[in-house]
Amino acid sequence: QKEVEQNSGPLSVPEGAIASLNCTYSDRGSQSFFWYRQYSGKSPELIMFIYSNGDKEDGRFTAQLNKASQYVSLLIRDSQPSDSATYLCAVNRDSGYALNFGKGTSLLVTP
Amino acid sequence: GAVVSQHPSWVICKSGTSVKIECRSLDFQATTMFWYRQFPKQSLMLMATSNEGSKATYEQGVEKDKFLINHASLTLSTLTVTSAHPEDSSFYICSAKREGTYEQYFGPGTRLTVT
Fold this sequence. Notes:
The complex is a heterodimer of chains A (111) and B (115). Helices cover 0% and strands 53% of the residues of chain A. Chain A has 111 residues and is mainly beta. In chain A, strands 2, 4, 5, 9, 10 and 11 form a 6-stranded mixed beta sheet that branches. Chain A has a 5-stranded antiparallel beta sheet with strand order 1-3-8-7-6, with no helix packed on it. With 115 residues, chain B is mostly beta strands. Chain B has no helices and 11 strands. Chain B is globular. The termini of chain B are far apart. The chains are: A mainly beta (111), B mainly beta (115). Chain A binds chain B through residues 31-32, 34, 36, 42-46, 49, 51, 88, 90, 92, 97-99, 101-104, and chain B through 2, 32, 34, 42-44, 46, 49, 93, 97, 102-109.
């Protein structure tokens, strides 16, 4: 069973701080890595994707990928209360298009 | 771009009836769409992969005769829950894969309640 592991949290950070979310995966054949944000009762929203080792920045978000360590992370700078949500890590499965999702990390940004 | 719609957003039906859910990619073509189910406080569970013009691929443990999937065009996939029972009550979410990428964009979901 190919797995994607995330700490369930909750991760609590003060407003303005950096939130760091981590994810590990077991399928060495995975090539595509995604971070989704899901508010309670809503569907997931794609916020970042990364295909190559290293960092990828988009606004306040930075995704980091280390394929050798099978590790992907998401940094959120200048965290805002509106960032409070569950963050899902997803990894493509069996070198195909289907995604395996982690169970998500709950982030709480306190004013 | 990358907007995906779902209809209906919520539905209540009686046990034994069938319900059809539509998933549309509004501003891009999607030969591949996916159907997920999510129970409260649990993660997404992939039910099936829907491919335009061909049969869907179902995940292990998902009954293909109960969850009928049709992907008749590059922008529309439908999921029909046949003979629904209370245990089928869940949040059903579709996603569409943008052509030429691995990115999946989710619809807003359909909340199904079977009484």
